[in-house]
Write a structure and sequence with these properties.
mainly beta; globular; Jelly Rolls; seven-stranded antiparallel sheet; 132 residues; 7 strands
Length: 132
């Protein structure tokens, strides 16, 4: 059983999810890992640097929260820059391209099973449901 803030350990003890500890276990850029679930939504962390790919999620919104660093979300008609402690929800169907000039740590919230590159499958596409 995976223990998270939302799933108690079999012994009945409860443990908070420490994002810094979980992020320290990641060594790849743009490789999301699940740290918790609530209903059918997953909380995924990642270390990111450089440009991601243009993509959209036709069926769902996608929330980005910057834990450390700075993330730029580009859209075909503008952009938003997020700093540590800031979040933004990309509406379903809106094409976007995340990027970070320096390593940035993020938390993404989206439904279980969402492909990180949307309908586009390429070298940045990652498998789902990988926990850390």
């Amino acid at each position: 059983m995976i223990t998270t803030a939302t799933h108690p350990a079999p012994s009945g003890s409860y443990r908070a999810v420490n994002l810094a500890d979980k992020l320290s276990l990641l060594h790849e850029q743009w490789s999301q890992r699940v740290v918790a679930e609530i209903n059918d939504y997953q909380f995924k962390i990642a270390k990111v640097e450089g440009d991601f790919v243009w993509h959209a999620h036709a069926e769902t919104d996608e929330a980005f929260l910057v834990v450390a660093g700075e993330l730029r979300l580009e859209f075909r008609d503008g952009a938003v820059t997020l700093r540590a402690g800031e979040m933004f929800v990309v509406p379903r169907g809106v094409e976007h391209k995340p990027s970070a000039a320096q390593e940035t740590h993020i938390l993404v919230v989206e439904p279980r099973g969402v492909v990180n590159t949307g309908a586009e499958h390429n070298e940045r596409t990652q498998p789902n449901d990988r926990w850390v």
